[in-house]
Amino acid sequence: MIGFLVRRLIGIAFTLVVICAITFAVFYLLPTDPAAQFCGKDCSAERILLVRQQMGLDDPLIVQFGRYLAGIFAGQTLGSGSYAVHCSFPCFGYSYQSAQPVWDLMMDRLPASVSLAVGAAFLWLVLGLAAGVLSALRRGTWIDRTLMVGTIGVAALPVYFTAMVLLYLVVAKLDLIPYPRYIAFGEHPGQWIENLILPWITLALMSAAMYARMTRNSVIETMAEPYVRTARAKGLRERRVVAKHGLRPALTPVATMLGMDLGGLLAGALITESLFGLPGVGKLFADSLGKADQPVVMGITLLASFFIVTSNLVVDVVYAWIDPRARLS
Fold this sequence. Notes:
Elements: H1 2-28, H2 34-39, H3 45-55, H4 61-74, E1 76-78, E2 85-87, E3 94-95, E4 100-101, H5 102-137, H6 142-155, H7 159-173, H8 189-223, H9 226-233, H10 238-250, H11 252-266, H12 270-276, H13 281-291, H14 294-322, H15 324-328
Helix pairs in contact: 1-14, 5-6, 5-8, 5-11, 5-14, 6-8, 7-8, 7-12, 8-10, 9-10, 11-14, 12-13, 13-14
């Protein structure tokens, strides 16, 4: 296991460096002036010249990339003299529009995105797994048909439509809860749940539908395996056969999908955060795109890559617990 983890960590480090190089090349090799792009739409010529000097754009591209990569692990100082700007570790760039390091901007928004991702993932796992297992065990019955038709209908609804309907019915029409706003869990756990329940449901409904269909197909396939028939022949109770020999191996593709989805959500659910006005990384990304704040866009792109790659490592480790066959290989 230790050797496996070491190899995976080396692979992750290499993957992240490649992603960083590609992202850097996309932003620095654009036809337009990178200094003008990084400075934003309303920068003066003098300001653009200052940004160019601070970014060191006159140096060879490989030197610029090496400096950017080193800044992530050791920080860096942009410019010199009275115009020097220090970007401390880990330095993912500097937003010249907000006059703040990109890392600080992302970390200020990350708690809201984490709260949204964790709550939504819990809901769609509970709903999706329950519906998928029930549908698989009642295959061919009206319960199976009703659940699968329902999942198709729910999955077809766009996120923005679901959000608008929930806001209108729950907030505007019935006045059950106030309009969502982010409150940290440590400040008031009850209000944290109350203000995030609608965004959680909005994200969870579509994902739960996909997880239900995947779980159903996986459970049906697993329950037809020879070792499941052997467990039944030994006289084990059906509940134990389903839980231990059927469900756990069937969760392997679900865990893979969860790793990808959760990794992406941790970097920000752009549409949901924008619709509900949540101060998360996704909302920051949308705002930065509108303002052409390229350092922030670049930093969030790298942050998303890190979460997705890391979540896949966690999934690989979880495999050994979910499916005994993975331990043998």
